[in-house]
Predict the 3D structure of the following.
Amino acid sequence: QVPLQESGGGLVQAGGSLKLSCATYSSYTVGWFRQAPGKGREFVAAISYTGGTTDYVDSVKGRFTVRRDNAANMVYLQLNSLRPEDTADYYCATKLWGAITRSETDYDAWGQGTQVTVSS
């Protein structure tokens, strides 16, 4: 089991920014998902092993950026122009094989999550 650990969540006003971090291993595709109160978990973004390919859900394109530093075994999700509807628990997950996907069932290991709250 690959240990994953998210950090960087917090309370921020609408329009603000946060940077989430995920400590992982460099050999995997990493996805970011979020789960808002009372809702199912949804795909947010993902980055390939090399960092050369990324994918974003439409609602965060242009506001969120995913990148990775394989030397440090870290993956980051920069959240800018935050909106109240971005409030959720954010999770990073690793995918051992294949290309980026948006399905949570394709991801093999998950972190415990970090909470992001955006006030209006």
Remarks:
- The two ends are 39 Å apart (CA to CA).
- The chain has a mean pLDDT of 94.
- The first strand starts at residue 5 and ends at 7.
